[in-house]
Automatic annotation (TrEMBL):
Protein name: Cell wall-active antibiotics response 4TMS YvqF
Ranges where the DUF1707 domain occurs: 20-71
Residue ranges, annotated region (Disordered): 1-28
Domain Cell wall-active antibiotics response LiaF-like C-terminal: 119-173
PANTHER family the UniProt entry points to: DUF1707 DOMAIN-CONTAINING PROTEIN, MEMBRANE PROTEIN-RELATED
Length: 213
């Protein structure tokens, strides 16, 4: 065996070394870095939005690294954990999501990481819709959710770092939120969700839970 053969077995091809699959935390950390860069003026809004969308769609860590490579030293501020400011910035500025949730004699659930648009409408007719906003990424820091509920139910869960304003009407039904949900918790530059609409012989309930709840 010559010298060139001796090292060939232990050598790792460069492409294989780069194809490490990204986790959800890797994607969130990258978007947090992009948010810091946008806040500092390193990226304009269009660049931030485009790169954030690519981050959520990335499969490998090398793709994520490419999105922040030209943002050093900002990228070094998020080596592997989610800073509180970065987590907040990741809340808003996402891509537009589905404009409507609909349930007729059935049910629909939106939970986990999903994009919530600036305007979202919920319609239920003898059905139920569950909206969980705890891991949602909002298109806008000011979001409106309109609920039209006829003999059905809507359940909306908000996290501790999102403020809400509820102004719906219940007719032979209920439209309301718990005391905890009504507490003003909006941080500076945080997200506010306005929830309005009408519940006829049905109910709309808003509760507040943290990420672990």
């Amino acid at each position: 065996m010559d010298a060139s053969d001796a090292g060939s077995d232990s050598a790792v091809p460069a492409p294989a070394a780069q194809r490490i699959r990204a986790s959800d935390q890797d994607r969130t950390t990258t978007v947090a870095t992009l948010g810091d860069a946008y806040a500092e003026g390193r990226l304009d809004y269009a660049e931030f939005q485009e790169r954030s969308e690519k981050a959520w769609q990335s499969v490998f860590t090398s793709e994520l690294q490419g999105l922040v490579r030209d943002l050093r030293p900002a990228a070094a501020e998020h080596p592997g954990s989610i800073a509180s400011a970065g987590h907040r910035l990741a809340r808003a500025g996402g891509a537009p999501g589905p404009g409507i949730s609909f349930a007729m004699m059935s049910g629909q659930e939106r939970s986990g990481r999903w994009n919530c648009p600036a305007q979202h409408t919920v319609i239920t007719t003898m059905g139920g819709v569950d909206l969980d906003l705890r891991q949602a990424v909002f298109e806008s820091a000011d979001t409106t959710i309109t609920c039209i509920c006829l003999m059905g139910g809507v359940s909306i869960t908000v996290p501790d770092d999102v403020d809400i304003d509820v102004s719906g009407l219940g007719l032979m039904g209920g439209f309301g939120s718990s005391r905890k949900a009504r507490e003003v918790v909006r941080p500076k530059d945080g997200v506010r969700v306005r929830i309005n609409g009408v519940a006829i012989m049905g109910g709309v309930e808003i509760t507040r839970k943290d990420e672990e709840g």
